[in-house]
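Order emerges. For instance:

***
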Amino acid sequence: MPKIQPKEIWKVDLPDTQAHEQTGDRPAIIISIHPETAMTMVVPFTKNPDCLRFSYSYQVKKSTTNGLALDSVALIFQMRCLGNSASRFLYKMGTLEDTHLKQIKILIKDYLVIT
């Protein structure tokens, strides 16, 4: 398993999807790591700005810090757990800026109805 940390952006492999779920190799934010279950919670990105029309989406502008090649949309409503394996986590792209991470965590709490 590659060494990953929360708030990092990694290129991940999402091969097993259905319907409108994000698929393929794409950036994702590491939200939390659970070593006892060998699972990691991620929020995938899309480069499609039209996805901002959906609730629980958040735009992140590309930067040298986060390593995104394009301005991207974090799809909080598509967050998921991935098994901790090198075949899922391909390489680290960068680190999400704290201002963006704070806003994404607010959206996650609201989405999960956590008070």
Notes: Helices lie at 98-111.
